[in-house]
Design a protein that fits this description.
The structure holds two protein chains of two kinds. Chain A is mainly β. Chain A is built from no helices and eleven strands. The chains are: A mainly beta, B mainly beta. At the A-B interface, strand 4, strand 5 and strand 10 of A face strand 4, strand 5, strand 9 and strand 10 of B.
Chain lengths: 115, 111
């Protein structure tokens, strides 16, 4: 199993550009989520999904869109990038997300810089 | 306002000694707590968890203690090894769909 994969690893955008961060998992996990990590802030939940076709907002959803058309993929879209979105983005998945025993498996991260 | 706080940004410990990492939370609805370990340029990896019905959970060298009345949990690593040097995040959840992470503590275990 590849686990959770994220592409690209690094990305530089100009203010106002749009892009999609890709996330895929091959563990047949129902629950997937996106976090951003900023210095001194830890990981903050952006959006999450409990299954194909179902998404919901996390702690910091503004400026980001998600969709979940398949169990495997959970892309994160930045519609109009802003410097405040410079961060490291992590995708994670777990079996159900409805049980306290579900650990989340994280991808390696995407480092995004918005100029 | 952060609901999960790790007030020590860094901790340095001698190899073989105990490492104690602390975490405080403000939301009394949190009933599940996890610790993750993160190496540079990698995603976090799950370490150990505890539910609110317990006050202690052990897994090898790692023990998590939960004090619900104080809204405080701690991770003990005994004995500490140089390979334990990493950033440790605590996380908490009330619904299992939303997880709140602390800002992390960077542990340095000196040989």
């Amino acid at each position: 199993n590849a686990g959770v994969t994220q592409t690209p690893k690094f990305q530089v955008l100009k203010t106002g550009q749009s892009m999609t961060l890709q996330c895929a998992q091959d563990m047949n996990h129902e629950y997937m989520s996106w976090y951003r990590q900023d210095p001194g802030m830890g990981l903050r939940l952006i959006h999450y999904s409990v299954g194909a076709g179902i998404t919901d907002q996390g702690e910091v959803p503004n400026g980001y869109n998600v969709s979940r058309s398949t169990t495997e993929d959970f892309p994160l879209r930045l519609l109009s990038a802003a410097p405040s979105q410079t961060s490291v983005y992590f995708c994670a998945s777990s079996y159900e997300g409805t049980s306290g025993s579900d650990e989340q498996f994280f991808g390696p991260g995407t480092r995004l810089t918005v100029l | 306002d952060q609901q999960v706080k790790q007030n020590s940004p860094s901790l340095s410990v001698q190899e073989g000694r105990i490492s104690i990492l602390n975490c405080d939370y403000t939301n009394s609805m949190f009933d599940y707590f996890l610790w993750y370990k993160k190496y540079p340029a990698e995603g976090p990896t799950f370490l150990i968890s505890i539910s609110s019905i317990k006050d202690k959970n052990e897994d090898g060298r790692f023990t998590v203690f939960l004090n619900k009345s104080a809204k405080h949990l701690s991770l003990h690593i005994v004995p500490s090894q140089p390979g334990d040097s990493a950033v440790y995040f605590c996380a908490a959840s009330a619904t299992f769909n939303k997880f709140y992470f602390g800002s992390g503590t960077k542990l340095n275990v000196k040989p």
